[in-house]
Amino acid sequence: MSRFRRRAHKDNPVQRHDFLIKEQDLAIALELEWRTFDQMIEPLFQASGAVIVLVEEQHFIYHDRRKQIRLFSQAGVLAIASYLDTLATFSLPETAVRTVLALLEQQEIRKIDASIRRTILQNSSSLRHHNDLHWLSTTDTTKILKTTSSRLAEAQGAIEFSGEAMLVGRHMAEFEGIQYFSLAGLVMLSLELKRSLKSPDRQRYCGRIPKVAPPVVEYLALAPAPSRQAIESAKRFAKKRDKQTCQITGEEPNKFNRLKLAAHHLFDQNTYPVLADEPMNLITISDELHEEFHQWLGGKGKSCTVDDFIQFVEAFYADEKSVIVVELLQRREVLLEKLSRYLPGVSGGDGL
Fold first, then answer.
1. What backbone phi and psi angles, to 5 degrees, belong to 235?
2. Is 268 left (phi over 0), alpha (psi -120 to 50) or beta?
3. Is the pLDDT score of 234 beyond 80?
4. Model pLDDT, residue 16
5. What is the pLDDT of residue 345?
6. Cα dihedral angle (113, 114, 116, 120), rounded to 10 degrees?
7. What is the pTM assigned to this prediction?
8. Which helix (H) or strand (E) holds 228?
9. Structure confidence by residue, pLDDT tens digits, 199-208
10. Which of 86, 175, 261, 331 has the fewest beta carbons under 10 Å from its own?
């Protein structure tokens, strides 16, 4: 019987960032020479061979297809380890078993951490600095914790009942009629949710927030901004790239239409300064549409993300022939990837 039995996960679609374990790292964990490892698992790629068959995009992807170097998912690692562990001609050392399980645990933690970083990036438009503390609105806090407003209120009540009261001005505050939680407040709520939630996956997610969230929030709050000249230069470039045309309506200025154009930041330059002079983060639209978007969002003082702009375009300007939303979604992925490079705790293979 194989020694590799782990709890089942929900049948979520496998994403590219699920393939984090390098072939050579798995060989080392199994205490095998890389060439030997490659030879031993070769039958697993043949449908007529072993009982277990490794499927591309489910168990592995090619890190380098030309050289046949693979990256494995957790399912792929478990399939390989289980196969080797049941071979009569091969004895897998106990130390290798422990190392492989530790490798899988590390992969799970990296995926959770990446999910937290991405969620914070997508839900930090309310971030503000006050009295040497960083604050996030209740709405953003709820989304970062991946919970509901009612469940968040329950967690807050449980903290109060436990005797560890959340202090006004230190853990929670109100700005312009909206309730905010400080970074310390976010951590308190995450630990309470970890304690009270039933789902192991949710417990692990909330349990990682105290380690992952603080450096990300602090960096976003204090990220260096490019110069005004660099931002204006990027805006001029974007307008020239977009041929002085509104990318949503297709309008362009002519002798009968003195259309004014704006270079709009998809991720606003105040909350996401590292993208302020990034041409991919700029899209040319008419001044009128620019004003309409910000009024729809709640005023020019409100922070915005590419998701806000996509929702606006989908609601008012996209039709069955429009491809602009697809283009915006593609940009969104590129911009999130660029943001991830600036965040602490992200290495090349971690993803966001």
1. -65, -45
2. beta
3. yes
4. 64
5. 57
6. 140
7. 0.65
8. helix 228-241
9. 999 999 999 9
10. 175
Per the CB < 8 A criterion, the answer to whether 301 and 254 are in contact is: no
Instruction: State pLDDT tens for residues 79-98.
Output: 898 888 888 778 888 888 88
- Residue carrying structure tokens 């422990």: 98
The DSSP result for 108-162, as a single string, is: HHHHHHHHHHHHHHHT-TT-EEETTEEEEEHHHHHHHTT--HHHHHHHHHHHHHH
What tokens does 57 get? Answer: 């995009």
DSSP per position, 251-311 = ---BTTB---EEEEESS-TTT-GGGTT-GGGEEEEEHHHHHHHHHHHT-TTS---HHHHHH
Closest by CA to 297, choosing from 319, 323, 279, 315, is 315
- Residue identified by tokens 């002798």 is 255
Which of 230, 320, 335, 227 has its CA nearest to residue 283? Answer: 335
Cα–Cα distance list, 157 to 42, 160, 190, 209, 300 (Å): 56, 5, 13, 20, 35
DSSP state of 242: T
